[in-house]
Amino acid sequence: MTPAIELLNSLGHPFELLEYDHPSNSKDYGLAASLALGIQAQQIYKTLLWQLNTQAVVVAMVAADAQISAKALAKLAGAKRAEMLDARKAESLTGYLIGGISPLGQKREFPFYIDDTMMALETVYVSGGQRGLEVGIAPSLLVELTRASLGSIKQID
């Protein structure tokens, strides 16, 4: 059991647990999950750690087929700039490996920012705490458990 699954079980919230074989050569973890599970990429949300103004660390989430706008994230968080953390630091801070970073059960609590398009979905899928493990939950539950702020943080092409 991962900390994310243990947290959901301990709180008694309903969730769906899906396992799949993650291709070892894939670095696009969200899209790999989408293909393996037959779930639209818009329903799978990736969990990324960002640093604001070279100090504060936050977690930002968008759909697997989208990118985060650093400018929009910084604005929503009330910062001047944002940049994504490197993989090693993200792993160290969360206790999860890249590709398996769950928004739930992280080692430390961080401010969360989630793209508001998620709220139009009935179910979203997030990492269950390891590669090849996805958790399906209601968007409102994800917002509640992470105490997330919602806003438009998706990169617009």
Structural class given helices, strands, pairing? alpha/beta
The radius of gyration computed from the alpha-carbon positions, rounded to a whole number of angstroms, is 14 Å
The DSSP helix count reads 5
How many individual β-strands? 8
Spell out the helices and strands N to C: HEHEEHEHEEEHE
How would you describe the overall organization of this protein?
This protein is an alpha/beta fold. Helices cover 27% and strands 25% of the residues. The chain has helices spanning 3-11, 29-37, 70-77, 87-94, 139-146, and strands at residues 16-19, 45-52, 56-63, 82-84, 112-115, 124-127, 133-137, 149-151. Strands 4-2-3-5-8 form a five-stranded mixed β-sheet. Strands 1-7-6 form a three-stranded antiparallel β-sheet. A hairpin with a 5-residue loop joins strand 6 and strand 7 (133-137).
Task: Give a quick precis of the structure.
By secondary structure, the protein is α/β, with parallel strands linked by helices. Helix content is 27%, strand content 25%.
Note the main attributes of this structure.
alpha/beta, 5-stranded mixed sheet, 5 helices, globular
Secondary structure topology:
Layout: H1 3-11, E1 16-19, H2 29-37, E2 45-52, E3 56-63, H3 70-77, E4 82-84, H4 87-94, E5 112-115, E6 124-127, E7 133-137, H5 139-146, E8 149-151
